[in-house]
């Protein structure tokens, strides 16, 4: 039984997986299914030039610390198989035998795949419980944070597993959720009607989303949160030391992705914008043309 098809149609899952932002790199799917990547490539996380027929991408997005430069990139092919490149110390890139996958998510050291029947696959570090999701059923959307995993059920309730130091897994009372995103130590949920919920660490204001309205897509960075409004404008809150929240002037946006300390956006014409930390060239996306969604915001 494919439970995912009805969900995607109902929730208008705009541009999910077209772009992704990691610790020090950015990734985008081209209209022909090829993939672009720019930024730090110390672990081969940008070696995606040979990928073809990709329908979604994910980038390992981790917090900024001396030991967090290593990361990985994941791609979902149109046939439901998955590819991954980059840092693989914990087996987070061991996804070559996955099949019938319809969505992917990448944490710091783990990778999650959502199958068409609503079950999940996991690879990578599991010490914090972030991969303890084999018993989950009827999942329709997923997100991977640094050390935790979040999933949405068809009735709009939410499950979470992994590190819960700041109650970032405290999503059990959420209802009416259509999409989720996970950061370093916080989780964000998009509710029906365009409301946004957030739990977890609040030291930088990354959970200050209660007043947001008319949101159609969300993305959680390490310590900031980005929301895409129905009119194509963007809201951002949280840590802004590198200007990663300076997206208030963006217009005509159809997808957003928040990395560790940078944010990228896809415009309706397929071109891209970026703001924030560009130490490794992760914001050098102005010449890209990425795939546009078949589901325009309206």
Secondary-structure element pattern, one letter each: HEEEEEEEEEEEEEEEEEEEEE
Number of helices: 1
Q: How is the main sheet built? A: 3 strands, antiparallel
Helix share of residues?
A: under 10%
The termini sit apart by: 30 Å
Please tell me about this protein's structure.
The chain starts with a helix and ends in a 22-residue tail after the last strand. The chain has one helix at residues 4-11; strands at residues 19-21, 25-29, 35-39, 54-59, 72-77, 82-86, 101-106, 110-115, 120-124, 141-144, 148-152, 158-162, 177-182, 186-191, 196-200, 215-220, 224-229, 234-238, 253-258, 262-267, 272-276. 3% of the residues lie in helices and 38% in strands. It has 298 residues and is mainly β. The protein has one helix and 21 strands. The strands form seven sheets. Strands 1-2-3 form a three-stranded antiparallel beta sheet, with no helix packed on it. A three-stranded antiparallel beta sheet has the order 4-5-6, with no helix packed on it. Strands 7-8-9 form a three-stranded antiparallel beta sheet, with no helix packed on it.
Quick recap of the structure?
The protein is mainly beta and 298 residues long. It has one helix and 21 strands. Strand 20 (262-267) and strand 21 form a beta hairpin.
Give the topology.
Elements: H1 4-11, E1 19-21, E2 25-29, E3 35-39, E4 54-59, E5 72-77, E6 82-86, E7 101-106, E8 110-115, E9 120-124, E10 141-144, E11 148-152, E12 158-162, E13 177-182, E14 186-191, E15 196-200, E16 215-220, E17 224-229, E18 234-238, E19 253-258, E20 262-267, E21 272-276
């Amino acid at each position: 039984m494919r439970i995912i098809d009805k969900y995607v149609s109902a929730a208008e899952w705009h541009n999910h997986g077209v772009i992704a932002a990691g610790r020090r790199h950015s990734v985008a799917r081209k209209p022909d299914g090829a993939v672009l990547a720019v930024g730090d490539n110390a672990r081969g996380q940008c070696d995606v030039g040979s990928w073809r027929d990709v329908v979604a991408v994910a980038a390992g997005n981790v917090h900024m610390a001396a030991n967090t430069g290593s990361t990985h990139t994941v791609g979902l092919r149109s046939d439901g198989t998955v590819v991954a490149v980059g840092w693989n110390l914990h087996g987070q890139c061991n996804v070559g035998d996955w099949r019938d996958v319809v969505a992917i998510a990448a944490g710091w050291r783990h990778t999650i795949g959502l199958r068409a029947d609503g079950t999940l696959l996991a690879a990578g570090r599991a010490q914090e419980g972030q991969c303890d999701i084999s018993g989950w059923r009827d999942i329709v959307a997923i997100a991977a944070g640094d050390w935790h995993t979040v999933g949405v059920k068809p009735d709009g309730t939410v499950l979470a597993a992994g590190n819960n130091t700041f109650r970032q897994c405290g999503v059990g009372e959420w209802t009416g959720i259509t999409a989720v995103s996970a950061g370093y130590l916080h989780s964000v949920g998009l509710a029906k009607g365009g409301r946004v919920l957030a739990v977890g660490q609040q030291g930088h204001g990354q959970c200050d989303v209660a007043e947001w309205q008319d949101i159609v897509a969300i993305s959680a960075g390490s310590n900031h949160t980005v929301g895409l409004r129905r009119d194509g404008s963007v809201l951002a809150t949280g840590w802004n030391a590198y200007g990663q929240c300076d997206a208030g002037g963006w217009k005509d946006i159809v997808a957003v992705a928040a990395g560790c300390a940078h944010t990228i956006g896809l415009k309706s014409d397929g071109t891209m914008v970026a703001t924030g930390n560009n130490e490794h060239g992760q914001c050098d996306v102005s010449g890209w043309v990425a795939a546009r969604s078949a589901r325009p915001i309206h």
